[in-house]
Write a structure and sequence with these properties.
- The protein is α/β, with parallel strands linked by helices and about 375 residues long.
- The protein folds into 2 domains: about 210 residues, D-Maltodextrin-Binding Protein, domain 2; about 120 residues, D-Maltodextrin-Binding Protein, domain 2.
- The strands form 2 sheets. Strands 3, 4, 5, 6, 7, 8, 9, 10, 11, 12 and 13 form an 11-stranded mixed sheet that branches. A two-stranded antiparallel sheet has the order 1-2.
- It starts with 10 loop residues before the first strand and ends with a helix.
């Protein structure tokens, strides 16, 4: 399985600022903040583990649907530190035992892996592993994903009367000056570039066809957005009527009353994942595995994704028709298999060069 670059929050790859976010959530943590399962500051003990979580709504949801129930079920306290992935990586470099489990962006996970800071997850210790979609399990054993979202096409339903069906629709002359795409520094940006390369005879390691394809889109571009909020304003104002965006963000904007919709292009929407890892320095390996197994279990995964408005990674999770009507999520064997993937390790390696080219060939 190709590794999939995931969450869309600001992080750093090779010294570059990469815009990502998770699950349509406000990941607002600006720095580390340790809290225990009850929300109060706690130190580590023999009967506790420390985890790193994204902040904001994600951390609140983790606390209520995973951390507190885990403590109630096992008696193990969970000390939660909130930090974006790049900050968590810095903490691990300073202390390999800073966390026992960490939620991190895949791109940063591969940096941590390259630095020798992670250990493989022992699948034999995970009772629920067989219930996961293959997409959610790193074939090299370094991460397990707890939610799935996707990058596809969002559009203003008042301005676009015929829903798009393909990435190629973005090149339709009727959208001249009305298309918005993400900067290559954001997940949707490098995913879109890599996907265009792959659809036109290239790959993550042969990106030229992708740049050639995107250069031909320039007559249709209204804007290149850098944050999800910018795309929200572009779509609702009508400055852009169609573009590359995230399923979860489209769901949230639609719930606010905006006339927007999301489609999965026939070539496949692009998988967006969030994942958990076990740092090499932990001395609580069994408890770390127990926590991960609890998070991916059917009952817990179901509660978690329904609060955050995302797709589950446990294939036995059942979502109601009302939830699926309100949220654009990848769900079920067929939809999960239809998702396109990109190679996270290759992108992390080449992204610095891509960013330089983007500034001269696409942004200008």
């Amino acid at each position: 399985m190709n590794a999939n670059l995931n969450r869309r929050q600001f992080l750093s790859i090779s010294g570059l600022a990469i815009g990502t976010t998770a699950a349509g959530l406000a990941l607002t943590a600006c720095g580390p903040n340790a809290t225990g399962a009850s929300g109060s500051s706690q130190g580590a003990s023999a009967n506790s583990i420390s985890i790193n979580s994204f902040g904001g709504t994600f951390q609140k949801t983790i606390q209520e649907t995973v951390v507190d129930p885990f403590t109630a079920a096992t008696g193990t306290r969970v000390n939660v530190t909130t930090a974006i992935s790049s900050e968590a990586l810095t903490q691990l470099k300073a202390s390999a035992s800073a966390f026992d489990v960490a939620y991190m962006d895949l791109a940063i996970i591969y940096q941590a892996k390259a630095a020798g800071l992670l250990q493989t997850i022992d699948h034999s210790k995970l009772k629920s592993i067989a219930e996961l979609y293959p997409l959610a399990v790193d074939d090299k054993g370094y991460w397990i994903a707890e939610l799935a979202s996707m990058t596809g096409i969002a559009y203003n339903t008042e301005k676009v009367t015929t829903p798009p069906t393909s990435w190629e629709d973005l090149w339709d002359p009727k959208y001249a000056g009305k298309v918005a795409i993400c900067n290559v520094g954001g997940t949707a940006g490098y995913q879109f570039l890599a996907t265009m390369a792959k659809l036109n005879g290239g790959s993550e390691s042969n990106i030229d066809p992708g740049f050639k394809k995107l250069k031909s889109l320039k007559p249709n571009l209204a804007a290149i957005w850098s944050t999800p909020d910018e795309m929200s304003k572009l779509l609702t104002s009508g400055e852009a009527v169609i573009g590359v965006w995230y399923a979860d963000r489209t769901s949230a904007l639609r719930k606010s009353g905006a006339p927007v919709a999301f489609v999965q292009p026939k070539e496949g929407a692009i998988a967006v994942l969030s994942a958990m890892v076990i740092p090499k320095g932990t001395k609580k390996i069994d408890a770390a595995h127990e926590y991960i197994d609890f998070q991916i279990s059917s009952k817990v995964n179901a509660k978690f994704v329904q609060v955050v408005g995302e797709g589950p990674t446990n294939r036995t999770v059942k979502l109601s028709p009302s939830f699926l009507e309100a949220n654009y999520v990848p769900y079920g064997e067929q939809q999960i298999k239809s998702l396109a993937t990109v190679d996270a390790e290759a992108i992390a390696t080449h992204l610095s060069d891509w960013t330089t080219r983007w500034q001269s060939e696409i942004a200008n």
